[in-house]
Structures are given as C-alpha cells and as structure tokens.
C-alpha cells in the first residue's frame, strides 16, 4: 500500500511544482515574469548610466569642435608697474610709472584648410559610434537580466523536484521497512533505502543553496528580490534560417554599426591631419583703454591684424601625426572586419545552439515519459517479488535524472532563443517593447550640438536636463 502511494507522489511531481512554490511560507504572492526582469535590469543598471554619461561626453566633443569655428572674445584688465633707475646729473633716481589697461580682444579663424570642419564631422561620427556602443551595452544588461530570471526559475524547479524526491525516498524507506518486518526483504534492502533518503536530503540542501545564489544574482542584475516566478517565458519570434539570421545581424547589430562609424570618424581624422599641413589665416582685433597714474594721461587704442601662417618645418612632427592617423584608421578597418566575422560566427553558434536545445528538450520530454513508465512498472513488480529494492531505487534515480534534465533543457531552450536575438542585435528595450522610458540619445545632443553659450537659455535647459538625469 505504501509503495503504491509513493508512486502517486512521484507521478505528480512535475504538475505540483508551480503550485507548491506558491504555498512556501514567506514568499510574495505576485509572480515575476521575464518582462519584469528586463524592466528591472533596464531601469536600475549602473552600467547603462555609466555609458549614457560617456555618450553625453562625446556629444560635448561636437560642441568643442564647433567652437573652433567661432570667434573668441576675451575681456582683459592689466596693471603694469615698471621699475627703472635713470641717472640725472650723476645722481641715481628711482622712477616707477604705473599704467592700467582694460579692453576686449577678438580672435576669429578665417581659413585652416578645413581642419576645424573635419574635426567637427569626425566628432559627430564618434557620437554615432558611441550611441551604437550604448545599444550593445544595453543588450548585455538585458541578457544578464534574462540569465538571472532563468537561473532563479531553474533552481526553483530543481528544488521542487528534489523535495518531491525526498518524499518519495521516505515513502520507499517506509515500504522497505514494512516488507522487512514481514520477512519479504533483508536488512540490506532497508539500508539501501536509508542511503537513498540521505542522498536525496543532501541533494535538496545543495539545490536550496544554489537557489539562494541565483536569487542573489537576480537582485544584482534586476535591482530587486525575485517574487514567485511565472514559469518559462514565451519564445520570441526567430528567423526561419541561419542565413536570414546572419542577414539581420549584419544590418542591425550595434557592434557592427559602431565599428563602421569609428572607421568613418578616423577617415575624417586623417583628412584633418593632412589639412594641418596647409596654411592658416586668422583675424585678431583688440580695443582698449590705457590710463597712466603718474601723469593722469589716458589713451584709447584699437587694432586689427590678419595673420597668415604656413608650416615649413616642425621637426617631422606633422608628417608623423598624419602617418599615425592613417595607421589608426587602418586598424579600425581591420577591427570592422573582425567584428563582422565575429558577429556572423556568433549568429551561427546561437542558431545551432537553439536548434540543439530544442532537440534536447524533445528528447528529454520523451525520456521523462519512458522513465516514468519504467519506474511504475519496476515498482509494481517489486511488490510481487519480481524486482529487488535496488532495482526500484535505480529506476527512481533514472526518473529523477530525466526530470532534472528536462527542466534544464527547457531553460536552455529559452536562453538559446534570446541568445539568438542578442546575436542579431535585436535584444533592446525598444525592440522588445518594454514598458520603460526609453533613453533618447538625441535629446542631449540636440541641446549641445550648436555649442550654446553659458549665459544662453539653451545652456540653462542643459542644466535642467543634467539635473533630471543625475541620480543622487
């Protein structure tokens, strides 16, 4: 009787896993799903905040480059104290005339062969590259949230399976003891059942420890403790072939687009350094007021000058700068090729991984079905004396292994599906349709791209934006 009751417990193991979790004391009543994990990871990631700040710094480089094309006006105030010792009729005297000057100076670039314009264009390409790098970081953050959720889910299901296995082992021990009491089995059979129960209890303790570790990672990745998980997530829409997946990745992956913008930025940088070999024309103007404290004289001065400069010899520095820029540009082109090949391989690996995980899940499901049938049959035969206790325990272990493998395969299929999405460059908050405030990189750029003066209204708008973005 007890043997058959234990069989019923094991049969319902998978069905009761989710229900039993909701009854664990102290657990919250709501369920966290994968979308919750994505939202938490996106909203609380310090890595995203760090790279958004780096993007804003790159935005400011555009404003800095633009400022080279604008006039520079400075106000100057200068007090001069002169010391000299003239000799009058052989007598040494001390004369200390003092003057005060105040005025404005203006400098304006007239021509530099396109050096400053090319610098601004290069900075703009760097901004575009940094935006794509931010999207790549966003993918990493969301994928970590996915792994954290699946890790908790896997360990919760593992704990439940092992908890039910402890119950079955305890039931089997009671059945062995009953059969020993009536002389059907020996003390060895009881000892085998006792060892099985002890092993099940040890495995349960390890599983609970692994669950605690997974929950700690969830807190780190998502920003809050997990509630009761809502089960395996639905799979995203995936391409029908590896070729289609590779094509999407080559068009969409932020790592490729970032590398492409880096190449263009360095192409412009090479042109900029070449322009630095040419002539430079600048306009300088100043107007001021000078007053002498010795004789109360005052003068007003104003001057305008046009300066033409052409490098003739700089010790080889200018030519070396051009060659260095060309070498850096060539390195970026090689990096682009490497990134494209790595992305292509990553997509192929992810596609094969998803296909393998799907096949593994189908096989694991069939393994659980067959192991369940075998366990039920062997256990029934043991009650008739046709099987030993060891046979029953071996069948129980086979069923346990099959159930754990099925849970792991189901989790791995979900991970592989989103890994494929990540490999294509599609694992972003916008493409997933997450209910979050999507960070708009153009908002700050549009405020700074014209390099507003510190006293302007646009500069005050920037101050408000930065205050809103800052997290104290």
UniProtKB/TrEMBL annotation:
Tell me where in or outside the cell this protein is found.
Cell outer membrane
Give UniProt keywords alphabetically.
Answer: Cell outer membrane, Membrane, Transmembrane, Transmembrane beta strand, Transport
InterPro entries (alphabetical): OMP_efflux, T1SS_OMP_TolC, TolC-like
The principal location of this protein is: membrane
Q: Which cellular component appears as one GO term in the record?
A: efflux pump complex
Q: Which Pfam families has this protein been placed in?
A: OEP
Q: List the Gene Ontology MF annotations in alphabetical order.
A: efflux transmembrane transporter activity; porin activity
Family recorded in the similarity comment: Belongs to the outer membrane factor (OMF) (TC 1.B.17) family.
Please report the name of this protein according to its UniProt entry: Outer membrane efflux protein BepC
Name its species: Ruegeria denitrificans
